[in-house]
Specification:
Elements lengths: L1 H7 L8 H12 L2 H10 L4 H16 L5 H32 L2 H25 L3 H28 L5 H22 L11 H6 L2 H10 L7 H7 L3 H30 L8 H6 L4 H16 L2 H14 L7 H26 L1 H24 L7 H18 L1 H11 L6 H30 L3 H19 L8 H27 L1
Length: 497
């Protein structure tokens, strides 16, 4: 019986249409907002700074100092990170109380408030509204990054869980690309349009509010958290069809039976639980490495490299759109490969390729003036680094956070992973400019160390999770703990002898 089920699983060619649409509805108002709000703020930089200066002059009859202007602009940009940290700390708790779908829908309140405040900043003459609006955008992004991967991972069948989980990465990259395209001068990138540009964050929120209610809550949440057998069966039938719902029901039942006296864990309880020590260490390392691997440095150097290659300053925004498109294509490619090659191959290979790119990038930046060809080699390294990041760390990290934990620990795991991700994001934004000034092109040697050490940890510690149920993955980590324990016992006995 089990043999028939396992052999029949790969024959399932395409997921149910309702499942795909549910994933799209979750993504458009979820992690799409994160990518969109990260990139859309870049286009109106000069126009917003002029607005701040103009408002300051009207209030104080003098121009704002350069230092004060820089501080205010930095606050507008970086407050998004603080909002994200707040969002991710409450996202896990909300997902347990309101459900995954309910939290995603309620989260749109923050996006609508952000759009309203940023849109009103220019007509009212209050640049402070931009700060508050960006904070609410960050809260929206933080909750989305925490809850949307939970929803996708829990509604997906085991055979295509990797591809479904890639919806998070794909929607982020599509959001980044959309923000870059809409910020072009031909669309909303002109001086008079910047308030409209910043308030367009309401559009994905409205799209999710009219689409997601048509789809069910996470079946795992309904059965394991709420004990709603009828609701779970109805959700499974809608998402997987009559033919596929029985196998998924059995999988969820096994997970529920494996969780004796189910009670959702708090983040601090995970740190005290030795049974998830390796899983917790893994997501901590992977989420820190996702921000500290040098991808932000690549974008920092992008404009400089484009100028060195002779690209006109007014054409650079269009080339930057090319980097966004490159990320999009890579995320889609990773989505197609992840359930064929597996998570471990992609993320280890991604970090290994990024390590090689760090070496080549250091060399090409060191000999930038040696030949007219060298700047083009640097650009090739830049795109290779982005491709490597998208194929591995950019997409697989979030999926592993879903797969390495069972239902009672998963929301807390996302709160820990998300908090660390946002803190690392803030740390990079704060410290990275000083690292570049101090080390210049040799800063990529630091990223080389991060990428290579992370690749080795993944290769030697993390088991492959492809086509495995959540219960089977837990058994793999349990066997890993048992392998370590006999070794420690043997060493102790030798010491006693």
């Amino acid at each position: 019986m089990n043999f028939d089920e396992n052999t029949a699983q790969p024959k399932r060619k395409l997921p149910n249409k309702s499942l795909v649409l549910a994933a799209c509805a979750a993504c458009i108002g979820g992690t799409f907002q994160y990518g969109y709000n990260v990139s859309v703020i870049n286009a109106p930089t000069l126009y917003v700074q002029n607005f701040i200066n103009q408002t300051w002059r009207e209030r104080h009859q003098t121009n704002i100092s350069l230092d004060a202007l820089t501080l205010l602009w930095s606050t507008i940009v970086s407050i998004f990170t603080l909002g994200g940290l707040v969002g991710v700390t409450v996202g896990g708790t909300l997902s347990m109380k309101l459900g995954r779908k309910g939290t995603l829908l309620a989260n749109n309140i923050f996006a609508l408030m952000a759009a309203l405040l940023m849109g009103l900043s220019f007509p009212t003459g209050f640049f402070e509204l931009l700060v508050v609006g960006r904070f609410f955008s960050g809260v929206n992004a933080g909750i989305g990054l925490c809850v949307q991967p939970l929803y996708l991972g829990e509604i997906a069948p085991t055979a295509i869980r990797g591809a479904m989980g890639m919806g998070t990465s794909i929607s982020i990259t599509v959001g980044i690309l959309s923000g870059q395209v809409i910020g072009l001068k031909e669309i909303l990138g002109k001086a008079e349009h910047w308030p409209i540009l910043l308030s367009t964050t309401c559009i994905p929120a409205f799209l999710q509010l009219v689409s997601l209610p048509w789809f069910p809550e996470s079946p795992r949440y309904l059965l394991i958290d709420k004990g709603d057998n009828k609701g779970c069966k109805k959700a499974l039938k809608q998402l997987h069809g009559s033919a596929g719902c029985d196998g998924e029901w059995d999988d969820i039942e096994k997970e529920r039976n494996n969780l004796v006296d189910f009670q959702a864990k708090k983040p601090w309880e995970l740190f005290a639980d030795r049974s998830v020590r390796w899983q917790l260490l893994t997501i901590v390392l992977l989420n820190a490495a996702q921000q500290l691997n040098g991808i932000n440095a690549i974008y920092f150097y992008a404009e400089y490299l484009f100028k060195q290659s002779g690209i006109a300053a007014d054409k650079i925004p269009y080339v930057t759109v090319g980097t966004g498109a490159c990320e999009c294509v890579t995320a889609l490619t990773c989505g197609l490969l992840i359930d064929r090659l597996g998570r471990k191959v992609l993320i280890t290979g991604g970090y290994a390729l990024m390590s090689i790119c760090c070496i080549l990038f250091t060399l090409t930046l060191s000999f930038q003036d040696a030949s007219p060809v060298v700047p083009y080699l640097s650009i090739a390294c830049l795109f290779a680094f982005i491709l490597s990041f998208g194929l591995g760390p950019g997409g697989v990290t979030n999926i592993l956070t879903t797969e390495l934990f069972t239902q009672n620990a998963r929301p807390a795991a996302y709160m820990i992973a998300g908090s660390l991700n946002w803190l690392s994001f803030f740390f990079v934004g704060l410290v990275f400019p000083f690292v570049v000034i101090g080390l210049q092109q040799y800063c990529f040697l630091v990223f080389l160390a991060v990428c290579s050490l992370t690749a080795m940890y993944i290769f030697f510690v993390i088991p492959e999770t492809k086509n495995k149920t959540f219960v089977e993955i837990q058994k793999d980590f349990k066997s890993l703990r048992h392998k370590k324990r006999p070794r420690m016992v043997t060493e102790q006995s030798r010491h006693c002898y």
